[in-house]
Design brief:
147 residues; alpha+beta; 3 helices
Length: 147
């Protein structure tokens, strides 16, 4: 099982951070490994919505479809693969901190299957590293637009 949790404090109000992060159209801007996001349902973040992503990870091109499983605007978003190389769940949470800052968490968990199961420990390390880069990038993008 892969279960990677990362978090960061972003010096922007929670609603602004959540609105930007929850929008799949923004994913290629702040996710290091995501190349594109294409809606497969009408452009609304709601339970059941589906988005196809193309990404690169560990030197491989990946295509997968995430389906929104849970969404509480400004607080939590849970997406699960509806189609892809192995079952994966991604969860974002946002919490207001003092001084108009937000704690954002990014959690990826899943069960690699087939040949990829051999790389599970390495995969966790690489995902943690990638997630830290992603959170640092979203922090930079959102804090820079404030200046």
């Amino acid at each position: 099982m892969v279960d990677v949790l990362t978090e960061i404090t972003i010096n922007r109000p929670r609603d602004q951070v959540a609105e930007y992060a929850a929008n799949p159209d923004n994913a290629p801007e702040w996710y290091v490994n995501i190349n594109s996001a294409e809606w497969q349902t009408p452009k609304r973040i709601e339970v059941g919505s589906k988005v196809a992503f193309k990404a690169a990870f560990l030197g491989r091109e990946l295509s997968y479809v995430y389906q929104i499983a849970e969404y509480t605007p400004g607080k939590k978003l849970v997406m699960r693969t509806a189609d892809g190389p192995f079952p994966m769940e991604t969860t974002y949470t946002w919490e207001s901190l003092s001084g108009h800052s937000t704690r954002m968490t990014l959690r990826n968990k899943g069960n690699p299957s087939g040949f990829s199961i051999l790389f599970t420990p390495f995969m966790s390390l690489m995902m943690k590293r990638a997630n830290k880069k992603d959170l640092n990038k979203i922090k930079f993008l959102l804090e820079e637009t404030a200046n």
